[in-house]
Amino acid sequence: MSNRTYHAGASSLVILLAALLLLPAAFAAGPEPDPLTDTVAALQRDALASSRAWEVLESLTVEVGHRFTGSSGDRAAVAWAERTLRELGFENVHAEPVTVPHWVRGEASGETLSPFPQAMELIALGGSVGTPEEGISAEVLEVGSLAELEFLPDEQVRGKIVFINERMERTRDGSGYGTTVAIRGRGPVLAAGKGAVAVLIRSVGTGPQRFPHTGGTHYDDELPKIPAAALAIPDADVLEAQLRHGEPVRFRLRLTSRTLPDATSANVIGEIRGRERPDEIVLLGAHLDSWDVGTGAVDDGAGCAIVTATARLIGDLPRHPRRTLRVVLFANEEFGLSGARAYAEAHAEELPRHALAVESDLGAGPPWRFGTRWAPEARPVAERIAAWLEPLGVELFEDEIHGGADLIPLAPARVPVAELPQDASRYFDVHHTANDTLTQVDPKDLAKNVAAYATLAYAAAEIPESLGPAPEVERSR
Amino acid sequence: MSNRTYHAGASSLVILLAALLLLPAAFAAGPEPDPLTDTVAALQRDALASSRAWEVLESLTVEVGHRFTGSSGDRAAVAWAERTLRELGFENVHAEPVTVPHWVRGEASGETLSPFPQAMELIALGGSVGTPEEGISAEVLEVGSLAELEFLPDEQVRGKIVFINERMERTRDGSGYGTTVAIRGRGPVLAAGKGAVAVLIRSVGTGPQRFPHTGGTHYDDELPKIPAAALAIPDADVLEAQLRHGEPVRFRLRLTSRTLPDATSANVIGEIRGRERPDEIVLLGAHLDSWDVGTGAVDDGAGCAIVTATARLIGDLPRHPRRTLRVVLFANEEFGLSGARAYAEAHAEELPRHALAVESDLGAGPPWRFGTRWAPEARPVAERIAAWLEPLGVELFEDEIHGGADLIPLAPARVPVAELPQDASRYFDVHHTANDTLTQVDPKDLAKNVAAYATLAYAAAEIPESLGPAPEVERSR
User: Fold this and answer.
1) Which residues in chain B are classed under CATH 3.50.30.30?
2) Protein fold of B2-9+30-102+262-462
3) Which of residues 295-314 of A touch B (CB under 8 A)?
4) Could you list the active site residues of B?
5) Which CATH superfamily includes the segment(s) A28-101+262-462?
6) CATH says B106-256 is which class?
7) A210 reaches B (C-beta below 8 A)
């Protein structure tokens, strides 16, 4: 950055010459303004001055609140999204039906019975079966990780409530989640295989606040389905301390969760049609569904607000970009990705014409970095976009990316994807908790995200070159 | 501070001379060491190196948890306190019975019914009556303050659920609480007097976390008793935003709270007996009871741990101070001060021999400042103690003080009191919420408090002079 500034001042002749030589390439390096750079600057300025993302997010959280897959809130959210995109002047606004599971949380309670009776804050994991009406009472067996559980002989586990007490690390990129979340997804199956009667996990989350973190878990049809819940971090601390006393700790867990027949939800779509190649799509995704315990402001109301405000802002330009911007508010990201799969199926024919797909689903922190998974020949485009993003505090990163959960089903079609994730340092403090509310969101960070997403989306929709096809994805993904 | 250091180095002869001249006064100003100063320094050093307060607090919160007045936790806490003080080698350990009210929270739920149905996080105010089984459904009337409610004509209030939407300000001294808490205490009576059917308040607390804050409220026997609850701050934000839409907002409130017959609790007392004047008492107070929704780590487990560790630390000195240190863990501070009143009655004869009383009841933040309400002639003692406290970051303050809620009943006997409050900047984020847990407490701050309290307590128990009687309290208090 400082190097570039120095050259611009001291050797502008060299730069000018270089720019002239490179002019035929749309992405000439160097500081000289060009129409694309000017437009990006104007978009960023307007985004930072606008409160539209905040207004969209406030509207969603105040008028709908939570919108858990299959719930009445889910239906209200679909109606809200169609109404909102229409009111904002999007084109081709419509809802595409998606069949979704319908799990109902019911009530949850838990308590240590001995040696020190104490009620605990806990929450059922998404998809958990309920307990018998009177609950399940058993001795607690603590393990520090799935690996530790794996190596325990069955007879030590049989009849116990397994407490998986693994701590998640706070990181800026959210990687602490990736390395810990398996206790939530795989804990119940692993414990059931060894004869456990229920599973408690330390919430997969960060921070000292007393909110248990939910999130989906899975069962194996060959094994008993055992109830599974997450303790709030302070309660995991208390249980851990009680266990340190050395006496057996008995616990009672009671959940009234159950699964109802599948329900219907929808992906909601709205477009800003391209002026030259309207059949080429830049997909701006976020997921409309949320867990049922907060108002889903951060996960993923923020994403819905960011991509909606981004597309609207670009649509307000004197002329639309070359390609179509398509906002896709996915159904049911949280509980099985059925919206994402339905989109990939319904739009299979069109996927080769997806010029780029990006999803905002890491909360409402400031935009932080930018990565791509697209054709190696289009690497200079990534660098050019990164230079535009730099003043927003966003830097290019080189890690392998997949582009957001809802974009996974697009990978076989080799759709180019980008990631423009938020700083997630505090994201997992509220993620999947009742504390995920608008009060946690900073309107300035939201506007900054719109500035960053508008930069990327406009560039992808306007540049003449193709970014695809993306490299083939390895089988394991 | 730096001035004093300079003098000590450069003009020590002058200082020495001054010290010699002033020797007859036990509190000669100046930096020359004396036995008292040496002992205070040793106490501070030992306090900062000790984890005893943390261990006491962990034991209370892990083995007992909440201990709401009249509950089984309350009884467990009394047993815990007697056991703990005995195990720590206190003398004269005993429990003095206190009759306490016994209110039971039951369940609480609430939701907006129209125009935008949404479940809300709320909590019954302590003492609230319940609603009918099906709840109370009515239109919401928002007011910004008690004053605004007071001036509304009855016909505007009649039949409504009054929503008192006043924000508490974050301050270091907790004064924002003092200026706002009347909405909790007086809101229900004021609203009932105008025909309201229920009251909702914005939680009297700070921060963005979604925990409703409880706390006691009051009724007037001449008026209908209407149910009263506090909304979590994010939920108050949502309700406020819904009301801004301009359409009538209907709300359903359901509480199953009820009051049971009085119960028995106890003040728990333990002493470090004085070596010369054992019948003169330095009272170190905190309250043992807590609200029923957290584990009361901050309010007031921290205070219990601080005063217990303080007295124990001083008791470990090669010789006990002149006067007796009496730790009093008061029953029922939160719900009517019955423990404090019972103590004042039971010890009425002894109150004139209370050399000082101090209570720690502002949480677990670092010690911040030091104030006194004692005989004007003993002012130099305050300054001397303040000089010792300075290295701990504690400064002398001159505001009028009363010495903590549990010390109010001691005022008519003109017992000298001090305040050594914690920095309360974050106290009201967790105060009276489910989030009041050990995970919120920093062990280093706790140790720092013990260092500060030990300084004050040792000085008060050791100096030959009397600090009393305190100035007479005006009638209004």
Assistant:
1) 106-256
2) Aminopeptidase (3.40.630)
3) 295
4) 333
5) Zn peptidases (3.40.630.10)
6) alpha beta
7) yes
Query: How would residue B33 be classed by pLDDT, with cut points 50, 70 and 90?
Result: low
d(C-alpha B36, C-alpha B28), whole Å: 11
CA distance B331 to chain A (A): 20
8 Å CB contact of B439 and A119: no
Strands (E), B154-255: 161-164, 198-202, 228-231, 250-255
Closest among A437, A145, A113, A415 to A283, alpha carbons compared: A415
- Chain centre distance of CA B437: 15
What letter represents residue B112's amino acid?
A: T
B336: left (phi over 0), alpha (psi -120 to 50) or beta: left
Query: Is residue A77 within 8 angstroms of chain B, CB to CB?
Result: no
Q: Which residue spans of chain A are classified as CATH 3.40.630.10?
A: 28-101+262-462
Strand order, beta sheet including B118-120: B118-120, B108-114, B250-255, B136-143, B161-164, B198-202, B228-231, B122-124
Three-class secondary structure of residue B418 per DSSP: strand
Structure tokens at A142: 């603590």
Tokens of B333: 């501070």
Closest by Cβ to A209, choosing from B58, B65, B209 = B209
DSSP H helical segments within B284-337, as ranges?
302-315
Map tokens 């020190």 to a residue: A116
CA distance B331 to A61: 42
Residues 6+ apart with CB under 8 A from B358: B283, B284, B285, B403, B404, B407, B417, B418, B419, B420, B453, B456, B457, B460
Is B339 exposed, middle or buried, given 0-12, 13-18 or 19+ CB atoms closer than 10 A?
Answer: buried
Q: Give bridge partners of residue A100 from the DSSP assignment.
A: A263
d(CA B348, CA A348): 86
Report whether B253 contacts B136 (CB < 8 A).
yes
Q: Is the dihedral of CA B353, B356, B361, B364 positive or negative?
A: negative
For B321, phi then psi, to 5°, come to: -65, 170
Is residue B362's pLDDT more than 70?
A: yes
DSSP bridge pairs for B231: B122, B202
Low-confidence ranges of chain A (pLDDT < 70): 1-33, 475-477
Inter-chain CB proximity B210 and A237 less than 8 Å = no
What pLDDT score does B34 carry?
A: 87
Q: Is the dihedral of CA A209, A211, A216, A221 positive or negative?
A: positive
Mean pLDDT of B414-438: 98
ipTM: 0.91
Write the CB contacts of B441 (distance below 8 Å, at least 6 apart in sequence).
B54, B57, B297, B298, B302, B364
- A82, A280, A333, A334: the catalytic one is A333
Burial class (CB in 10 A: 0-12, 13-18, 19+), B25: exposed
Question: Could you report the per-residue pLDDT of A84-101, keeping only the tens digit for each?
Answer: 999 999 999 999 999 999
Give the span between the Cα atoms of A70 and A78, in whole angstroms.
11
**How far away is chain A from the Cα of B81, in angstroms, using its nearest Cα?**
15
A6/B contact by beta carbon, under 8 A = no
Question: Of A174, A74, A143, A134, nearest to A255 (Cα)?
Answer: A134
Residue of B63, B437, B440 lying closest to A116 (CB–CB) = B63
Nearest by CB: A438 against B63, B237, B440: B237
B344-380 as b/e: b if 16+ CB within 10 A: beebeeebebbbbbbbbbbbbbbbbbbbbbbbeebee
**Burial of B228 (C-beta count, 10 Å sphere; 0-12/13-18/19+):** buried
Taking CB atoms and an 8 Å cutoff, what residues of chain B touch A75?
A: none
Give the tens place of pLDDT for each residue, A425-441. 999 999 999 999 999 99
Residue A333 annotated in active site: yes
Nearest to A187 by CA among A199, A176, A195: A199
Q: Where in chain B is the domain with CATH 3.40.630.10?
A: 2-9+30-102+262-462
